[in-house]
TrEMBL record:
Annotated source species: Nocardioides agri
Superkingdom: Bacteria
Comp. bias (Low complexity): 124-138
Sequence segments annotated as region (Disordered): 122-147
Protein name, per record: Uncharacterized protein
Parts of the chain that traverse the membrane: 20-39
UniProt keywords, alphabetically: Membrane, Transmembrane, Transmembrane helix
Length: 160
């Protein structure tokens, strides 16, 4: 008897077993992908993410106490603003905020946790401070007419 007798044994899986071990998981994955594609058909969202001006402010940091109130709206340049009693108010949102614009031109505003803050037509309020737009140079959608921006430094809530 040779010292290599273990090498002479038949393998635990034959060629057919090896092929099945590879093919079956691939077929299962393909079927699962097909089911997911079929189920999600027709639920496509054509919303476009739009950048909104943001600051580095995050909850827990020092904040201003000026009241910021207005109705969420979007202009022709895809800039989100608040329509207030005295005209347009250009907010600089807390870190992580973003907007999504749907195919009908309606905007939805999300916070850094991906929670809906409001949609166009919603009246919202927050607190913060007012400053010149130069303090946020490089951010999109800031006024260039020398006006002020409203730096939102609190939770944004919907009001009636």
């Amino acid at each position: 008897m040779s010292g290599y007798s273990r090498w002479d044994q038949k393998p635990a899986l034959g060629r057919r077993g090896m092929v099945l071990a590879v093919v079956i998981p691939v077929l299962i994955a393909a079927a699962a992908f097909g089911v997911v594609s079929l189920v999600s058909r027709g639920s496509e969202s054509t919303a476009t993410t739009i950048r909104v001006p943001t600051s580095e402010w995050i909850p827990g940091q020092d904040a201003g106490d000026a009241l910021i109130v207005g109705v969420i709206a979007v202009d022709d340049h895809r800039c989100v603003y608040l329509q207030g009693s005295e005209g347009r108010l250009w907010p600089v949102w807390p870190a992580g905020f973003r907007g999504k614009l749907d195919e009908a031109g309606h905007v939805t505003l999300y916070d850094g946790g991906d929670n809906v803050v409001g949609r166009d037509g919603d009246r919202v309020q927050a607190s913060g401070s007012y400053s010149p737009p130069a303090a946020y140079a490089g951010e999109p959608c800031l006024p260039d007419d020398g006006g002020e921006v409203a730096a939102v430094q609190s939770e944004v809530t919907r009001v009636d």
